[in-house]
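Hi support team,

I've been running sequence recovery on a batch of backbones for a student project. Most finish fine, but this one hangs at about 90% for roughly twenty minutes before it completes. I'm not sure whether the input is malformed or the queue is just slow. I've pasted the structure tokens below so you can try to reproduce it. Let me know if you need the job ID as well.

Thanks,
M.K.
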């Protein structure tokens, strides 16, 4: 029995054997699967046998090859149309011997050097493929010697040669015996060795001579060469090689069984003469008697190889080939290859569709994807598939279409290398252009800023000239409300110009030093009827603000373009300079559109090296190496120089490099700051260099702020390691990008400490915030709070609504008209700004925004100065608002007064007004006109009589107060006394108020002028007493008026007043009625009329008009009354009434004193004539009765009275 150990060993042996068998089986299966995978991954480029599955082309070729009249057959079609595949499919059915000649791989030295391929070179290639294609043993007589391989009989043949030589040597030794015949004796079988030696030697000698004979057919004399001379026939180098070796060709077809010669790719050389030679050879071969079969030539060539109808004359049969692929259908083949390699998900279908238009060769497409499979297997060894499949395919397309240029690319040469090399040049040029544009914009902005004062000064001069036209020529100084006078020549530059132009009235001083007032309320409308000076000034400032905002936007856009240019894709940069690339793309030749497409669309760019060579992680890339080469050559690379492995580059740099400009690379700084613990020493050196050469590092900072990843650490490092960083930044407006980065990235504690350490930073940021934000720095609004800024123009940051709202909520802005309008429009969403401009504080408080109200309350003094007083149209504030504002104790009285002056609302009760504004509200008519308010003002500490007088003169007061009853109680006595004693009032105004007085006054005020006294008299507001009449003794006309107004009272108590006749005479001239005048005349002394002509005339007129009794008149009084009265009819009427108290002598004297014709009534020979009136008739009657005249009578027509006089005095 077997032991246990033996069984164990047997079992282990069986197990090992079984394991080996299983391993072998698995290995075979894996090899089978790998073979299947390889077959699916690659595809050969050889012609396929499936190109003519329908057999159409094969039938045509079979017909042509079986037709005895056809010896030259053409298979025509464009490149890649499948001609070779059709021939291969045909050969499967064609059973006769064929000879294939292909010139596809024929590339003589002439082609490589750019020259044309000669006909002789083409013919030589054809001849070589023809002769060397057959077995050397089939052409033993050919002059083209080839190496023959020993046959299987060579061993025996060599033995035969040795035996032959030995036999010949033996016969040579026995030559005498051979000659005399003794060598062959005896002639018996036993002498067979002798006969054998002779047979072997003789046969060897014969065969040797025969071979030399055959060799002589292949010998030809090409040249004779002496020591230094070679003679060669000219025809050898010039004649056709095929024609020269025509005998070889005929011999070839005689010695071989080929019936069909297939010639491919002969059309690539564009030489039609070779076809003529081949046709001639075909004809000669077929005509040769030694060739017992028809030899046919089948040519595969392009359609355009022969012009017009030449090809139909050359070929006996032409078969056209319909292309299997062209530029419009190549997409299907490309997709087919992509599907074969399972690339559908990785390749962009649009890219494949577009690039396929440039690929019209199926074999080219297949080879591209074969190479793709190989490249991707080598480049993506880690399985991450990080490479762009589209870019890899693009590189391989370029490689296959331009293999020579692809080879040059590895050495940094060739057309594509030149195009890729333009990238840095275009970047530098683009940056230079953008920087130049920024410099131009900044220059324009600087010019515009300097222009602002000039524009405002010009505007001031326009209004100043308009004001000068209103001033007298002698005016030398000008001022407002008694303020300091300003020289006229300096008005336009005065800080008080705005207030002066906006005033209603101003005072000026002439050369004599006198001050006068002039009204300029219409000045602004005369200059511009649509806009005030303040509005035009605001427009100038607004245009400047808009221009500044526009400049900031343009500058920011250009900086964004610079940043975008540095990070732009390669194709985007090339597209910007496409005109300069035309020549470079043109160097590719007729296929130049393909690289143009691949480059312009970004499928081939400066990352090409990732797809053309194996890359080992952790090592230097070409860019890294280039960077190190430049810094070793003391060349400062651009801060944006692309570095692929920053850690490797840092490791390769020297210690002193970190104190040089070389360290200022975005990727390197990211590396140093990203691991500041590992690179502490290098980082310290870098910050030391930045501090020492800060002004020259602008390009780096611009690049790093745009593309760097560790900006916060960079800013914090500069702030911590360099105390002069903040002052250096604030000292130059060109360092605004640093300020933005400081605000955005400085650690919070350090940011809060800045205002205390550098107080100038807050006003700096307040002034430049819009420009800082325009740089595109992403700033968290909350980071502005620690700086304590107050922005002057919120609209300048309109493009940053988040920051604008934050500043509003924090109250970090100055109180100005523009800011409040911006807040209402943008923050609070109020579109209608009219209320804000006409009743600002009322609108602000009415909006109910606690944040806004708190900000205004905190800075009310500034709000009053910069908002309420700046708004020219802010005149419609509510009464409550007005009282609230003028009641503030923290504001300047003059500012409050200016605000109050601008308002149109009136306060109903003076009790609501602070005492210090009592006088002002009356001056400005901002108090409701009422006698209660007037009385309250009179009791105020601030009472001013002139102010109340001025108020009473206002239209509002004149419209309202006369409609109200003046209080009649004792409390209002002072008011009534003020009204009657106010001589400063206009007489018309005085009359209005006096007539509303409820009581009369005992006597006239002592300080009133005549006008006011007349009003009191006319309105009967003073008692008619002798004292009052006497008080007017010096003012006769007022005294007369006073008596006239009280004539009845006077006549009733005339004795009490004891007025003289002179005064009574004045009363006779007033309109008091004739009855009252007769009463006055009766109280007068009429005897005095003779010496008082004026009085006599007045009395006479009254007596005549009233028909009063004149019997009381004496002769002198009657004479005076008649002669001093007027006109003549009145005199005659009085004469008629007084004639009874007159004697005839008196009558004659009076007649003599009367005017003609009455003075002619005396003694004489003529007959005076007077008008016929009743008075005159009565007059002549009593004259006739008293014999003063002789007689009287009417004239012939009855229109006059003719008086007949006595010729002499009857009394004598």
């Amino acid at each position: 029995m077997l032991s246990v150990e033996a069984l164990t060993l047997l079992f282990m042996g069986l197990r090992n054997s079984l394991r080996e068998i299983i391993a072998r089986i698995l290995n075979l299966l894996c090899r089978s699967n790998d073979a299947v995978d390889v077959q699916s991954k690659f595809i050969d480029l050889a012609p396929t046998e499936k190109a003519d599955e329908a057999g159409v082309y094969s039938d045509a070729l079979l017909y042509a090859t079986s037709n005895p009249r056809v010896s030259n057959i053409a298979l025509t079609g464009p490149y890649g149309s499948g001609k070779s595949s059709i021939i291969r499919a045909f050969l499967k059915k064609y059973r006769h011997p064929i000879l294939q000649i292909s010139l596809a791989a024929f590339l003589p030295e002439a082609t490589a050097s750019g020259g044309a391929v000669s006909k002789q070179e083409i013919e030589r290639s054809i001849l070589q493929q023809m002769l060397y294609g057959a077995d050397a043993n089939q052409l033993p007589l050919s002059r083209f010697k080839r190496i023959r391989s020993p046959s299987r009989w060579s061993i025996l043949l060599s033995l035969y040669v040795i035996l032959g030589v030995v036999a010949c040597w033996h016969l040579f030794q026995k030559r005498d015996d051979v000659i005399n015949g003794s060598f062959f004796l005896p002639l018996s079988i036993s002498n067979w060795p002798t006969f054998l030696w002779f047979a072997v030697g003789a046969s060897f000698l014969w065969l040797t001579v025969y071979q030399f004979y055959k060799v002589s057919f292949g010998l030809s004399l090409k040249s004779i060469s002496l020591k230094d001379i070679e003679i060669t026939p000219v025809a050898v180098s010039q004649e056709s090689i095929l024609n020269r070796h025509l005998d070889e060709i005929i011999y070839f077809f005689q010695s071989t069984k080929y019936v069909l010669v297939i010639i491919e790719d002969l059309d690539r050389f564009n030489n039609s003469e070779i076809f003529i030679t081949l046709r001639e050879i075909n004809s000669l071969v077929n005509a040769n008697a030694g060739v017992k079969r028809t030899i046919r030539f089948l040519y595969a060539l392009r359609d355009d190889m022969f012009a017009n109808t030449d090809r139909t004359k050359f070929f006996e049969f032409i078969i056209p080939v319909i292309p299997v692929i062209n530029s419009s259908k190549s997409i299907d083949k490309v997709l087919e290859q992509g599907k074969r390699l399972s690339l559908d998900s990785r390749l962009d279908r649009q890219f494949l569709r577009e690039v396929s238009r440039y690929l019209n060769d199926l074999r080219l497409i297949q080879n591209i994807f074969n190479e793709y499979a190989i490249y991707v297997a080598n480049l993506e060894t880690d399985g991450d598939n990080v490479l762009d499949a589209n870019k890899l395919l693009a590189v391989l397309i370029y490689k296959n279409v331009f293999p020579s240029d692809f080879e040059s690319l590895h050495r940094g040469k060739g057309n594509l290398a030149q195009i890729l090399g333009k990238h840095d040049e275009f970047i530098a040029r683009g940056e230079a252009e953008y920087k130049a544009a920024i410099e131009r914009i900044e220059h324009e902005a600087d010019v515009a800023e300097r222009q602002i004062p000039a524009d405002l000064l010009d505007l001031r001069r326009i209004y100043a000239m308009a004001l000068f036209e209103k001033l007298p020529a002698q005016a030398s100084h000008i001022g407002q409300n008694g303020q300091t006078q300003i020289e006229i020549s300096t008005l336009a530059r005065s800080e008080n110009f705005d207030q002066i132009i906006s005033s209603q009235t101003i005072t000026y001083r002439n050369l004599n030093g006198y001050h006068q007032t002039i009204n300029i309320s219409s000045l602004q409308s005369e200059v511009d009827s649509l806009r005030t000076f303040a509005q035009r000034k605001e427009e100038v400032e607004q245009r400047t603000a808009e221009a500044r905002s526009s400049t900031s936007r343009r500058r920011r856009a250009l900086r964004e373009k610079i940043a975008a240019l540095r990070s732009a894709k390669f194709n985007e940069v090339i597209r910007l300079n496409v005109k300069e690339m035309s020549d470079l793309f043109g160097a590719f030749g007729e296929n130049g559109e393909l690289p143009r497409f691949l480059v312009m669309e970004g499928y081939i760019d400066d990352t090409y090296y990732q797809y053309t060579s194996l890359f080992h992680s952790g090592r230097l890339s070409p860019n890294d190496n280039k960077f190190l080469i430049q810094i070793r050559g003391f060349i400062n690379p651009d801060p944006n120089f692309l570095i692929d492995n920053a850690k490797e580059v840092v490791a390769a740099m020297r210690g002193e490099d970190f104190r040089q400009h070389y360290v200022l690379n975005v990727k390197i700084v990211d590396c140093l700051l990203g691991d500041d613990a590992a690179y502490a020493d290098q980082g310290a050196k870098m910050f030391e260099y930045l501090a020492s050469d800060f002004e020259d590092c602008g390009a780096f900072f611009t690049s790093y702020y745009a593309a760097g990843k560790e900006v916060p650490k960079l800013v914090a490092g500069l702030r911590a390691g360099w105390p002069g960083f903040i002052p250096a930044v604030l000292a130059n407006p060109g360092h605004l990008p640093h300020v933005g980065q400081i605000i955005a990235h400085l650690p919070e504690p350090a940011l809060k400490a800045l205002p205390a350490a550098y107080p100038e930073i807050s006003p700096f940021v307040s002034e430049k915030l819009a420009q800082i934000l325009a740089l595109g720095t992403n700033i968290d609004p909350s980071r502005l709070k620690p700086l304590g800024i107050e922005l002057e123009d919120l609209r300048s940051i309109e493009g940053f609504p988040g920051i604008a709202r934050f500043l509003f909520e924090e109250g970090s802005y100055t109180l100005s008209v523009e800011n409040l309008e911006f807040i209402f429009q943008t923050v609070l969403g109020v579109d209608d700004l009219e209320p804000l401009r006409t009743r600002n504080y009322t609108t602000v408080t009415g909006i109910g925004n606690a944040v806004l109200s708190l900000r205004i309350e905190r800075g009310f003094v500034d709000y009053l100065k910069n908002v309420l007083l700046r708004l020219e149209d802010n005149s419609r504030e509510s009464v409550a608002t007005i009282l609230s504002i003028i009641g503030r104790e923290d504001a300047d009285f003059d500012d409050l007064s200016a605000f109050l002056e601008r308002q149109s609302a009136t306060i109903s009760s003076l009790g609501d007004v602070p005492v210090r504004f009592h006088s002002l509200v009356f001056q400005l008519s901002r108090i409701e006109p009422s006698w209660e308010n007037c009385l309250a003002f009179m009791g105020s500490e601030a009472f001013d009589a002139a102010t109340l007088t001025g108020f009473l003169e206002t239209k509002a007061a004149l419209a309202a107060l006369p409609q109200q009853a003046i209080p009649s109680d004792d409390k209002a006595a002072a008011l009534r006394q003020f009204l009657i004693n106010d001589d400063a009032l206009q007489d018309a105004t005085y009359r209005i108020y006096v007539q509303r007085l409820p009581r009369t006054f005992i006597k006239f005020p002592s300080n009133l002028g005549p006008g006011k006294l007349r009003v009191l008299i006319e309105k009967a507001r003073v008692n008619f007493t002798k004292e009052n009449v006497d008080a007017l003794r010096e003012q006769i006309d007022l005294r007369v008026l006073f008596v006239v107004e009280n004539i009845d009272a006077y006549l009733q108590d005339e004795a009490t007043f004891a007025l003289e006749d002179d005064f009574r005479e004045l009363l006779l001239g007033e309109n008091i009625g004739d009855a009252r005048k007769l009463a006055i005349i009766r109280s007068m002394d009429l005897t005095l009329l003779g010496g008082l002509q004026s009085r006599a005339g007045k009395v006479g007129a009254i007596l005549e008009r009233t028909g009063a009794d004149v019997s009381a008149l004496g002769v002198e009084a009657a004479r005076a009354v008649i002669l001093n009265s007027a006109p003549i009819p009145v005199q005659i009427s009085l004469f008629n009434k007084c004639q009874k108290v007159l004697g005839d002598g008196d009558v004659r004297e009076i007649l003599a004193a009367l005017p003609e014709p009455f003075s002619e009534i005396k003694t004489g020979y003529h007959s005076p004539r007077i008008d016929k009136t009743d008075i005159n008739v009565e007059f002549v009657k009593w004259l006739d009765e008293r014999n003063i005249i002789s007689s009287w009578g009417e004239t012939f027509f009855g229109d006059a009275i003719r008086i007949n006089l006595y010729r002499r005095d009857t009394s004598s």
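--
Follow-up from support: It reproduced on our side and the slowdown came from queue contention, not your input. Residues 452-533 form one domain. No action needed from you.
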